Amino acid sequence: MTTLNLGFFASHGGTNMQAIIDACKKGQLNAKPCVVISNNSDSIALQRAEKEGIPFYHLSSKTHPDFTELDRVILDVLKKHNVNLVILAGYMKKLGIKTLEAYKGKILNIHPALLPKFGGKGMYGKYVHEAVLAAGENITGVTVHIVNEEYDSGHIVNQCQMPVHENDTVDTLSARVLEREHEFFVETLQKISEGKIKLG
C-alpha cells in the first residue's frame, strides 16, 4: 500500500478537500495532506488549511504576474512538500506546463457529471447540472480523471452513476452530487493507494 502525499489546489470552498482531510484523520484513507495552494487569497480552502495545520499558499497572477514564473513557483512548492499526487478540488485555473509535465498522470480532478458528456471550458458547478437537466438526462454521476492541458479531457480514472429525479432542480441535483463527490473521491484515492487503480 502506498501512502499518498497530497497537494491540494482549490479556488473557493474546498469541501472535497475537507472530506479527504477528514478521511485521512479518521484513518479511512492512507494519505497525508501536505500542502494547499489557492489562487484566491480569501478562499475558505485556505482558512480550512490553516485550521487543520496544513501549510498553505496563495499563488496567483496577483503574486506572480508572469505565468511562467507562477508555474515554476507552484512546482517548487509541491516538490518542497514532497507531494506525489495533486488533487484539484474546485480549482478554477489552468496549471502550467512545468507542473503538468512534472506530475504527468498524477494530477486528479473531480467532475460532477459522467464525462465525456457535459465537460469542457465553462462546464463547472451549477452549469454542469443545468446542462444535465436541460438535456433531459435520467442518469448523471461523478468522474475522477487525470488532468492534462485541455479541460476535462484527461484519462478517466473512476466513475459512478447517480439517478436524476423527475422533480430535481439545479440545487437539489447539485447538493446530492456534491455529497457523493465527497465519498467517491475518498474511495477512489484509497483504491489508488491500494494499487487497485493504476495511474499513468
Description of the molecule:
- There is one protein chain.
- With 200 residues, this protein is of the alpha/beta class.
- It has one domain (4-193): Formyl transferase, N-terminal domain (Rossmann fold), CATH 3.40.50.170.
- It is 36% helix and 21% strand.
- The chain is built from six helices and seven strands.
- The chain has helices at 15-25, 44-52, 67-80, 97-102, 126-134, 170-193, and strands at residues 4-9, 31-38, 56-58, 85-88, 107-111, 139-146, 156-163.
- Helix 1 crosses helix 6 and helix 5 packs across helix 6.
- The radius of gyration is 16 Å and the shape is globular.
- The model has no long low-confidence stretch (mean pLDDT 95).
Task: Give a short summary of the structure.
This protein is 36% helix and 21% strand. It contains 6 helices and 7 strands; from the N terminus they run E-H-E-H-E-H-E-H-E-H-E-E-H. The chain has a 7-stranded mixed beta sheet, with helices on both faces.
